[in-house]
Amino acid sequence: MSPLMPRLAIVVLAAGGSSRFNGIKQLASLTSQHSLLSHTLTIIKTVQQQADFNIPHSGVIVGANKHKIIEHITELERTDNRNPVEVVVNEQWHQGLSHSVHCAVNFAIQNQCSALMLVLADQVALTYADFLALLEAFQQNGQTCCAEYEQQLGVPAIFTQQDYSALLALKGDSGAKKILIQKQQLNTLNKVVLPYAGIDIDTKADLQLWQANKE
């Protein structure tokens, strides 16, 4: 394990109501073996287990349909007990993405982690290699690090402890992108080209298209 790597928490944001999906998107079948959420959590577990970095804690933020999703996560833990994932309930999920980000930051603080990786549950094309590239870029100088795709900045992204107050100040449906843009303007941002980060699932048509292209 790298001695220069701070304690890092990985948190998957999965609290949304998925109104455009017309169903519980997190539980939708991605493959014969995985839902969207279990696919992402399985990769995160692999990153924790195999990557040579200090990642003692991982969590998943749930909100809408929390009981069904927690039951699903519990079943995953029965079949894959590597690095147990902690469930955090965001009771204010309906007030916007910022509340899930707040939950993630508080999770990192409570577990004494000085860095936080935020991940979305529906970025289904991301691979272990993508997360490894992000971690390696972060390790270079310890600066905030994010994915770059289609000339956009976004998650997955790794934030430092110095970013926590700005993340906790987000309101409504604001995600962390504006913080990434500010850090880019200050030349304090590491960017990693991750084309697959631009692929996410918003509708059932998106899911069907992704599955068709994978076959």
From TrEMBL:
Keyword presence, Lipid metabolism: no
Annotated ranges, domain MobA-like NTP transferase: 11-183
InterPro entries reported for this sequence: MobA-like_NTP_Trfase, Nucleotide-diphossugar_trans
Gene3D superfamilies attached to this UniProt entry: Spore Coat Polysaccharide Biosynthesis Protein SpsA, Chain A (3.90.550.10)
Positions of transmembrane segments: none
GO molecular function, one term: nucleotidyltransferase activity
Entry keyword set: Magnesium
Protein name: Nucleotidyltransferase family protein
Classification of source organism: Bacteria, Pseudomonadati, Pseudomonadota, Gammaproteobacteria, Alteromonadales
